[in-house]
Amino acid sequence: MLENTTDSILDHRLHWRWAVPVLALLVLFPLIASATGTDFYVSLASRILIFALAATSLNLILGFGGMVSFGHAAFVGVGAYAVAIFMQAGVVSAWLAWPLAMLVSAVFALAIGAISLRTQGVYFIMITLAFAQMLFYLVTSLKVYGGDDGLSLAGRSTLGFGLDLANDRVFYYVTLSMVVLVLVAVARLLNARFGHVLQAIHENEVRMTAIGFPVFRYKLVAFTLAGALAGLAGALLANLGGFVSPALMQWSQSGMLMIMVILGGVGYLYGGIMGAVFFLLLEELLTHFTMHWQLGLGAVLLLVVLVAPNGLASLVKSRRRA
Amino acid sequence: MNAILVLEQALNGLQFGLMLFLLASGLTLVFGIMDMINLAHGSLYMVGAYLIATLTDVLGNFWLGLGLGILGAAVFGVLLEISILRRLYQRDHLSQVLGTFAIMLMCNETVRLIWGAQPISLNPPPALAGPVELFPGFSYSSYGLFIIGVGFLVAGLLYLLITRTRVGMQVRAGAANREMALAMGVNVRNLFTAVFGVGAALCGIAGGMLGPMLAVQVGMGESILILAFVVIVIGGIGSVRGAFLGALIVGVIDTAGRALIPLLFGMLMSPEAAANAAPAVASIMIYVLMATVLFFRPRGLFPAHG
Fold first, then answer.
1. Which residue, B175, B164, B143, B159, is CA-closest to B245?
2. Residue A259, SS3?
3. B-chain residues near A306 (CB < 8 A)
4. Bridge partner residues of A152 (DSSP)
5. What is the largest CA-CA distance in chain B?
6. Rounded distance, CA B260 to CA B265, Å?
7. How close does chain A come to B261, measured CA to CA in Å?
8. I need a surface site. Which of B12, B145, B197, B252 has the fewest CB within 10 A?
9. Residue B120, by phi and psi: left (phi above 0), alpha (psi -120 to 50) or beta?
């Protein structure tokens, strides 16, 4: 961040002092994994990073814009399907297919947002759910693209430059760089005028309207942007699994993304990432011990709600300030 | 035979709509009065169904099992309110979503621990097992008619409770303006617990009624919870009247759509295309309905708050 600007409460710092060591650790992770013979964790790590990306995109509108979207998985699914369908049509280059996936997701988000943003509060939650459900059932009925059974990809997208995405380690590094890129971009956006306006709208929409800001337009742009980023997460997810299915767009997936953001910290820059990592790692850990892992997961989530009212990120923050 | 098909589907829709109302009325009151999003509402329905199925099995009597099971669901709801949910009232909606989602996970898993992952069976009483002939050439399941009767009876009692009693007045006051009701000396603490208990009992009734028709299994609460949310959003949050109308609309459209759209599509397009498109279109209908209602009435059909 520029040093000559004074930090306002609407600014969100990247906390380089913490981020750089963590990032270094993440860069070294595949090497550590291969040294300890646990290579299979690299794919899991990629999956967690992708969900961290999706949760961060949701946090952009949920946490900073106050738009509680219960249909975010639809945009992830649209991005994933876009990559799969383009690949079937012969577009295998990641440089072409991924931006196209983001574009398609953005167009869907623009249309859905334009209608949904007429409503407020819980009604907004439910109307976004409604549109996500419509897309879900639409995809299940598209027999050309596998319908209920889903669609297998012929392989992973190609990157050129001698990089082979089919290699799990290469894929991990590409995913990691995407997450870092998106995180920095989101931070820059939030600290720019656009981000300040968005957060101010969340704080007091009536006042911002009265001052003369085109509130609806700002919210719609943020919603569309978040949709595009979710589309990128979808494109990565389709590549990781080599398979897309309507299950990606189920309402429970949207719910899970929402839970991740709330768990990590609504309106904290690292909230989405912390939530996704904590949630998926806990799930992975508990499934090792017991079949009834949901009981433990539920208990931990309940504990977080009662102990850390603003999510995990708030815990870290308050401790550092104390 | 077309008229008979339509009549049968109308009765099916009515039956499902009334059961949705039992779930939605509790949800809308909890939401309207306590400003609380309760994702665990579906769990009350599940627990009610499991209790009724088990008690019926143990006692060998459906009516005894039904009564005790409903009571059990109400007690479970009250305990849940006193122990955990009470702490969430003052928190924002998102914390409530996370907290009640956690409770939902724990309920599901506890039920799986106790009863196992397989669905369990709940049979209607022998007296209501067969069909009845309503008029020559048309017979309908007697249990279905019984459900419709119970649905109307409970809806009527709820209407009397809310419009004709002191508690009902306090409930309405709470839904319209919580702070004002507080200032006027309503004992909100007890009222909340009571509303929650009643809501849980209604869930239990719905679980007991629908149990013999749908499977009694883990996760049965979630799919119907989404429908109940659709109902209260269409009706307007906090409004029992809105929930009633919304439930009937959703019940009839969902049921009729599933039965009639495949027939309609079969007439319009090739059998293969119809088989692909019809189930999806039938499932989408209620969401299109909700989006349309919210587009023109962003606060539902009967907003309770001023």
1. B159
2. helix
3. 87, 99
4. A243
5. 65
6. 9
7. 14
8. B145
9. beta
Give the chain A residue whose CA is nearest to the CA of B107: A295
Helix (H) or strand (E) holding B141: strand B138-141
Other C-beta atoms within 10 Å of B133: how many?
9
Put simply, whether A174 touches B (Cβ < 8 Å) is no
Q: Min CA distance, A214 vs chain B (Å)?
A: 20
Q: What is the pLDDT along chain B (306 residues), one digit of tens a residue?
A: 577 888 888 888 899 999 999 999 888 888 877 778 888 899 999 999 999 999 988 888 888 989 999 999 999 999 999 988 888 888 888 888 888 989 998 998 899 889 888 888 888 887 777 787 777 777 888 888 888 999 999 989 988 888 888 888 888 887 777 778 878 877 777 888 888 899 999 999 998 888 888 888 888 888 888 889 899 889 888 788 889 999 999 999 988 888 888 888 878 777 777 777 787 888 888 888 888 888 888 888 887 654
- 8 Å CB contact of B98 and A297: no
Torsion over CA: B254, B260, B266, B267 (sign): negative
For the whole model, what pTM was predicted? Answer: 0.85
Which residues in A lie closer than 8 A to residue B291 (C-beta atoms)? 115, 127, 130-131, 134
Count how many Cα atoms sit within 13 Å of the Cα of residue B198 in the half-sphere of its side chain. Answer: 22
Q: Could you tell me if A133 lies within 8 Å of chain B, comparing CB atoms?
A: yes
| Range list of β-strands (E), A66-191 | 151-152
DSSP letter (8 states) at residue A165 = T
C-beta separation of B63 from B5 below 8 A: no
- Domain boundaries of chain A, sorted by first residue: 43-248
**Type of residue found at B114:** I
Residue B155 burial (10 A CB sphere; 0-12, 13-18, 19+): buried
Q: How far is B103 from chain A (nearest CA, A)?
A: 6
